[in-house]
Amino acid sequence: MKTIAVVEDEAYMREELCSMLEKAGYEAVEITSFEDAAQQLTELSPQLVILDLNLPEISGFQICRELKQKTSIPVFVLTSSDQMQDELHALRLGADEYQTKPFSNKRLLARISNILKRYEGRTNLLEGEGFLLDRGTYTLYIHNSSTVLPKNQGKLLEMLLTGGEEPVTAQELCQALWGTTEFVDENALQVNLTRLKKTMANLKMEQKIVAVRGIGYRLERSEKL
Length: 225
Description:
Elements: E1 3-7, H1 11-23, E2 27-31, H2 37-44, E3 48-51, H3 60-70, E4 75-79, H4 84-92, E5 97-100, H5 105-119, E6 125-128, E7 131-134, E8 139-142, E9 145-148, H6 151-163, E10 168-169, H7 170-178, H8 186-202, E11 207-212, E12 216-221
Parallel strand pairs: 1-2, 1-3, 3-4, 4-5
Antiparallel strand pairs: 6-7, 7-8, 8-9, 10-12, 11-12
Helix pairs in contact: 2-3, 6-7, 6-8
């Protein structure tokens, strides 16, 4: 049974959506604490998120941004806002579908089914600029081809992708590579980062690894592209 998380602050609307989903054969999970919604959703890892934009404590836009930076979970924005600028902003942040309220149950269920079909088999995939990384096999899909990264390079790229715009510390990278931060030579980390940088350059990837002074490393879009 596929799990769909509903991020909606209006109790009546939330209950109506969950009832509709359950009748259609899905498991519906209600998210009612919104400030840490992105973290909750990352841990829950549902097959789809239905997300309202106008939420207390935090904007649905921010939840969408944070979730898409960390995961490949599809996001269906369901909102009362019919402003074109809101729709375009949500889509730029990575939303997969945008629907205004009120809505037809049949039409909504059809769109949900289409999104789920598109994402079947993609639960392990992380999205970067112009590429996908399978976090299970460290297969990199780019330019209509695929290549399997060495394990350490795959782990580093996975960590940097899940970090999104936030820098990942050297300690976090060492923990991912060796399972510890003790007695790890910084030079060993640099060797592995250099190898990944070379691989990314050879593949002409749109992102590069940059050092954030005193903090760690993150991915940024290459200025040359």
